[in-house]
Structures are given as C-alpha cells and as structure tokens.
C-alpha cells in the first residue's frame, strides 16, 4: 500500500545535537530492568483478597504480588516489561490502559492484548477534546504524564530522537558483519508482514515494537501487521495536527516522523520520569 507523503510540518529523522546524544558513559544498552513474566492469558498482577468492609475508603493495592523489576500500573494492576536504553527507561510494550478516546484495533479485545490500545492524541496527553482543534503549546511542558502510569510520561519528539540517535551510534559500533537499521533492531521478531525490501526484526535491545496499525479520524482501521506508530507530546505547526513516529514493515529504519489529525488513533509507549 502506498505510504503517506511527508507533509511540510513533518520531520526527517536526523542525528540530534551533542546535547541530545546519549553520553558515552551511559550509552551501554542493557535490559536490567526487563523481567520475564509467567505465561498467562493476561499480564495483570494477582488481585489481593477482597478487603473487609470498613470505614476506610482506601483503594485496594492492585499491584500486590507484582514483580518488583516490572512496571505495574496501579490503576488496573496491569504489568509491563520495561527496558533501559542508554539513559532512558522505556515501556517494552504498548500501553493498554482503557480510557475514553481509545480503541482496540477493529474493536477486538484480542488485538488490545497483542498490540495495546490506540489512543487519540488528546487522550494520550491527558487533555480535553477542545484541544483537538486548538493549540496546547503552552501546556506541553516536559514530562507530560497524560494517560501514562504514575512516574511515567508521554515522550516528546526530542526524547524519541535521543532514543534513535543513541541506538544508531550503538549499532555502528557493533562488530556484526551486517549492521542493521534502528527500526530492525526495535521490531519484534514475529508479528510483522514479510518483506523483500527489509530484513525481519531482531528486537536486539528488547524494545519489542509491534505493528498495531492505526485508526483514522473517520473510525477506519488500517495497516495491522505493517505499521507501528507512536504519539509524542508535541504538536505540528498545522492546527489540529500532531506528530507521530512511524515504523513500517518494508523499511529497516524509522520511515519518518509524520503528522496527522489529533483525532486519529495511534499506539503509545511511555517513558520513565527522570530521577
């Protein structure tokens, strides 16, 4: 299928300035924060016994029994793997928190389980729908939590560029006979359509990018198995539009940074707040 053309407000992926690069002392990419979860039909932490009724209105601890090395979302008890890449700690799965303004691909729950939910931009960044058409520039400060779990935030385009440039440097330094693209190194090994134009994903660093497709502003779902798209907490220069980062099955790198209507539905990866 033909790909959308980069618009005038879209960005090409470029090396970041030296201030955005991952410092050499912290550019080692490790998975110390990843955790193997026991196989089950749902990655949700075990629920504690039903609380004894009392005068206290405190919510039960939905993360009781969750592995300490994983991210547990206190709102629904869902557990996510995480991965440290350079100086950043990312969710290693797409967000699945159910909220108004989010969907499962083709409204099938099994797609939410595999690919996470698709969110409107306003839902992702935690703003009301009046910002679908007006600018939120003055509200987009660093570390916008939005729909992310406590202690995590929606990444900015600058933070995505830091991820990209750090991985590109790391891949160039590898001794492999074939140096793969950043996109190839981020994609999961399975779940993507095959292509003669690009090698299969290696998931070299445990990021686990999956092709969850998207939902357009008219409610039509497209590109499951082909496209991986992430909203960022940034806005495009055109009113009512926001940028998203795109991985495509027939390309070994990020295809580009596009923008689309904020009412479109894209995946979300949250980034851990700076400590």
Which labels suit this protein?
single chain; 275 residues; alpha+beta; three-stranded antiparallel beta sheet; 4 helices; 12% helix; globular
How is this structure best described in words?
The chain has one domain. 12% of the residues lie in helices and 17% in strands. The protein has four helices and 14 strands. β4 (82-85) and β5 (88-91) form a beta hairpin.
Helix and strand run: EEEEEEHEHEHHEEEEEE
**What's the total count of β strands?**
14
Provide the domain count.
1
Query: Cα distance, first to last residue?
Result: 43 Å
Structural class of the helices, strands and pairings? Answer: alpha+beta
Evaluate the radius of gyration: 19 Å
- Detail the poorly predicted runs: 5-10, 14-56
Largest sheet: 3 strands, antiparallel
Write the layout of secondary structure elements.
Layout: E1 29-30, E2 71-72, E3 79-80, E4 82-85, E5 88-91, E6 102-103, H1 109-115, E7 118-119, H2 121-125, E8 152-153, H3 157-173, H4 182-186, E9 214-215, E10 221-222, E11 227-231, E12 241-248, E13 254-261, E14 271-272
Antiparallel strand pairs: 1-4, 2-3, 4-5, 6-7, 8-14, 9-10, 11-12, 12-13
């Amino acid at each position: 299928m033909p790909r959308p053309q980069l618009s005038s407000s879209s960005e090409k992926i470029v090396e970041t300035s030296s201030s955005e690069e991952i410092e050499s002392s912290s550019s080692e990419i490790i998975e110390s924060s990843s955790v193997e979860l026991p196989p089950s039909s749902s990655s949700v932490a075990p629920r504690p016994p039903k609380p004894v009724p009392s005068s206290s209105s405190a919510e039960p601890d939905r993360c009781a029994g969750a592995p300490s090395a994983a991210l547990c979302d206190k709102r629904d008890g869902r557990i996510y793997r995480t991965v440290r890449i350079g100086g950043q700690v990312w969710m290693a799965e797409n967000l699945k928190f159910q909220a108004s303004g989010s969907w499962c691909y083709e409204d099938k729950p099994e797609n939410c389980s595999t690919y996470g939910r698709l969110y409107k931009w306003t839902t992702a960044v935690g703003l009301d729908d009046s910002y679908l058409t007006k600018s939120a520039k003055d509200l987009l400060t660093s570390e916008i939590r939005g729909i992310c779990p406590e202690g995590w935030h929606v990444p900015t385009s600058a933070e995505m560029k830091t991820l990209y440039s750090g991985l590109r440097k790391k891949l160039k330094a590898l001794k492999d006979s074939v140096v793969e693209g950043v996109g190839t190194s981020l994609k999961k090994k399975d779940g993507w359509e095959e292509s003669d134009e690009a090698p299969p994903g290696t998931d070299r660093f445990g990021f686990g990018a999956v092709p969850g497709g998207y939902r357009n502003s008219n409610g039509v779902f497209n590109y499951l198995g082909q496209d991986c798209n992430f909203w960022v907490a940034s806005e495009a220069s055109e009113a009512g539009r926001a940028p998203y980062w795109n991985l495509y099955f027939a390309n070994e790198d990020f295809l580009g940074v596009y923008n689309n209507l904020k009412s479109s539905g894209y995946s979300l990866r949250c980034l851990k707040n700076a400590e």
